[in-house]
Amino acid sequence: MAKQYGNIYTLWGGPLAVVVLSGYEAVKEALIDRSEEFSERLETAFFNDIIKGRGIILSNGHTWRQQRRFAVVTMRKLGLGKKGMEHQIAEEAHQLVEVFARSKGQPLDPTFHITNSVSNVICAVAFGHRFAVEDEQFQKLIEAINYLLKFLFSPTHILYEIFPWIMRYLPGPHKQAFSSLDTVISFAKDEMEKHKETSSLHEPQDFIDFYLLEMEKHQNRNDPVSTFNEDNLAQCIFDFFVAGTETTAISLKWALLLLANHPDIQDKVHKEIKNVIGSSHSMCYQDKKKLPYTNAVIHEMQRFKYAFVSGIPRQTAKDVKIHGSLIPKTTGIFPDLRSVLLDPTRWKTPAEFNPNHFLDKDGQYVAREEYLPFGAGSRICLGMQLAKIEIFIFLTSLLRTFSFRLPEGVKELNQDPVPRVAMNPHPYKICAIPHCRT
Ligand code: HEM
């Protein structure tokens, strides 16, 4: 559509209009150069009814500012120290390696195992502990999140946005979306209760501990504008699960698929890890500086097979004039991040899986300003650092242990995505062959 209508155009869904920003220049101008004017998240009937302005991803104004600032600082604190995030991620990566080892080189669909691992990372951050895969409550939590993500931008969701006053009273999949949210919120609230009974808040260990402490501080001060309460805490945890599980899982699934389809690239990554790191210690995020080729492959994988169909919609915080057009306040904005990652004016071979996009002539890693899978500006992904650490440690731990090969008789895995809000690959199986046997 950008080819036909230009890099800024309006899409109509019934009576609802959203302005799409396509390509690096348009997205950069809005999200980076004019960050404040485009800083709000889109408010719609369904999102207002289900989220009620709480948490971080879909909140605006004072609630967003206060919750986001606190979460950014807390994420940083949780990343430090021996029991920091990296240690927990390395532990999850170890569990995932064990699962692949048990498959004994037979074809395996990695979806279930990767989803459990990345969900457990969020559990470790939010609750301070992981869950056994067979835990029924944990599986219900994952199902509820999957249902909600499938529901978003489905025909029933769109109908709800256009006719909310009717849909509120009709049965249908939207009712299950509401009960899925309740499932996640009550899971979070149960954990909060357990923390209140057992935790020693003078030594906070996880997000709930830090948040309960902050709530207490604001209550003691009788702060009249505090947004620190149990509903916002539960909503923040919901946000971490919704924003942080499927996105990361999809990225890892694409990575294994692409590497199985490109054995030459996979072998180069393996050789680099083997030669530089060896098998002396478990992988840590700092190692990425010593692994320029591996680092470039990870970036290229996220560029070439982006986890979202476009990005997370924003809305204008005031009337905005851009490229001669007036966009009124509270108009929906779709910053099309996929189009930035595939922008033919910025990437040499945008439609090819080509790690050279992130390498200089000496084979050193180069950062690219048009690499924006986590968005940009004041609303940039809050879990970006966590996601980067996860993807690096999970992938390198797997690749130093196994060679990922196509099952016998399979020539290539399907590289087309299943088109939804989150762009999953089609279900596939791969064989994890331990290196010592090859
Ligand atoms: C590969 C993995 C991930 C990708 C591709 C991704 C991408 C994004 C994008 C595109 C946005 C919108 C940014 C914008 O509007 O400019 C976002 C927001 C957000 N992400 Fe992520 N994300 C990932 C992982 C995570 C993780 C692990 C967490 C866990 C904490 C997380 C938490 C959030 C939150 C809370 C927001 C809302 C920020 C706000 O509105 O202020 N994300 N993410």
Automatic annotation (TrEMBL):
UniProt name for this protein: Cytochrome P450 2J5-like
Broad class of the protein's primary localization: membrane
Organism ancestry: Eukaryota, Metazoa, Chordata, Craniata, Vertebrata
Residues engaged in binding heme: C381
Organism: Podarcis lilfordi
Signal peptide: none
Family per similarity comment: Belongs to the cytochrome P450 family.
GO molecular function, one term: iron ion binding
Membrane-spanning intervals of the chain: none
Biological-process GO terms, alphabetical: organic acid metabolic process; xenobiotic metabolic process
SUPFAM superfamilies: Cytochrome P450 (SSF48264)
